[in-house]
Amino acid sequence: MKKLKRIVVGLDIFEKSNDILKRALSLASEHKADLFIVHAVRTPWVAVPSYFGSKDIGVDKEGITKKIEKKLKTLSKDSKVSCFIFVKEGNPDDIILYESKLNQADMIVIGRHSKAKGRKGFVGTTAQKVAHKSHLPVLIVNSSAKKPYKNILAPTDFGMQSKQSVLFAKNAFHTAKINIVHAFETIYMEGPYAAVG
C-alpha cells in the first residue's frame, strides 16, 4: 500500500479551521507527511475599477498567509511537520483539486462547512464537490480533533474501489477499528410473476 507522504488541506480561515488543522497535523505527524495548506479566495465576478489613480482592491494574500502561519504555530507546538501554504484566487474546489494534483498529494483533508441556514450537519458544496471530483481519498473533518479516530464505518459494494478505500483507511488510521457494511435493497413481488417456493 502506498505511504501517506503528502496531504493537501483545504482551509477556510474565516470559518472554524482549527479542528481541520489539528486533524491534518496529527495525521501528518503520525505518517511523517508534508502538509500543503490551500486557502482559496473566491474572485469577485465584478472587478472594482481603479478611478483617480487609486490602487486596485485585491486580496491580501500575505495577510491571509500570516494568519495561517499564526494558527499553525499555536496548534503545532510539538510537531515537526513541514507545512507549505498556498493562498490562491478562484473557485475553492477547483483550486484544492488543482493543488492536490500539482503537489502529487496522497490525501485531501477538508472541513464540512455549509452556509445553508437550518441545515445542521449538512456537507457544504466545496467539500461535496471535492469528494465527488477527486481521484484521491478525501477526509471530511466533522468534529473536534481531540483524539485519534477509534471507529471507522466503511460502506462497500464489494468492488475494487471499495477494497482500496478500506485498505487506505487501514493504512492511514492504524489504531482504528474498521467496520465494513454492505447494504442492499430487497424486492418483494406479488402476483403472477412472483417466484413461489
Concise synopsis of the structure shown:
With 197 residues, the protein is of the alpha/beta class.
Would you write up a description of this structure?
This protein has helices at 18-31, 61-75, 92-102, 125-133, 160-172, and strands at residues 6-10, 34-41, 83-89, 107-111, 138-141, 151-155, 177-181. A 5-stranded parallel beta sheet has the order 3-2-1-4-5, sandwiched between helices. By secondary structure, it is α/β, with parallel strands linked by helices. The chain has 5 helices and 7 strands, in the order βαβαβαβαββαβ. Strand 6 (151-155), helix 5 (160-172) and strand 7 (177-181) form a beta-alpha-beta unit. The mean pLDDT is 84. The chain folds into 2 domains: 1-44 and 60-143, 3-Layer(aba) Sandwich (Rossmann fold); 147-197, no CATH class. The chain is globular.
Q: Sheet bearing the most strands, described?
A: 5 strands, parallel
Number of helices: 5
Number of strands: 7
Q: If you average the pLDDT, what whole number results?
A: 84
CATH architecture of the largest domain: 3-Layer(aba) Sandwich
Strand-pairing-aware structural class: alpha/beta
In CATH, the homologous superfamily of the largest domain goes by the name HUPs
Output the radius of gyration. 21 Å
Looking across the biggest beta sheet, what order are the strands in?
3-2-1-4-5
Write down the domain tally.
Answer: 2
Q: Assign the CATH class of the largest domain.
A: Alpha Beta
Residue windows where pLDDT falls under 50 for at least 5 positions: none
Beta percentage is 15-25%
* CATH-assigned fold name of the largest domain: Rossmann fold
Terminal residue distance: 47 Å
Query: Looking at the structure, what is the overall shape?
Result: globular
